[in-house]
Amino acid sequence: MADNTSPQWQIKAEQILSCNCDYGCPCNFNALPTYDNCEALLAYRITKGNFGDVNLDGVTFAWGLWWPKAIHMGDGVGKTYVDKKATAEQVKAIEEITSGKHGGGVFTIFPSTFSKTLPTEVTNIDFNFNEYDAWFTVEGAGEARLEHIVNEKTGANFKGEVILPNGINYKHSQVASATWHWNADQYSLNHVKKHGSTSISTYTNEGCIA
User: Fold this and answer.
1) Is residue 120 part of a domain?
2) pLDDT digits (tens, 9 = 90+) for 61-83
């Protein structure tokens, strides 16, 4: 929860998420991660938003995340990337949102588990949103490419959704297969056909509200 001195803010954003868990990601259901630790690369494109007086319409940003165990066990690392088209004021606003100081559900809870926050990087971010076949690239750092999960027997595309009425990052998402990588500092992650999701969510000081 944000404190009383936090600027009022709200963003509606398309989100593309990739992590190292198997499809569905047990972390969504208060279970431990598939492979004992959590790794993720997410990107957001704000369709409408503001942080105080700063307009954030059209800003794209990404978040590289790593934890040695489950998220709630702490010692995590986070790094924010903001697309070069953003102004200096918009970059600062995104840094503030991802700092954990101003509410926003996932934007407070994840940073509260970090032991290290790497410096923000301004770079080119390409972002292509689609319910199941989505992708983004963060120049010099990584990319995620999502596609339909495919039935290994029939070859048919699988469609699945996750609904989380109390979700901190989204309330409703489409589940996909994600192949992704992220490199920053001493962290070098590379995953093939792991959990991916897409969603459209609204965040405010009070959390993920839609």
Assistant:
1) yes
2) 999 999 999 999 999 999 999 99
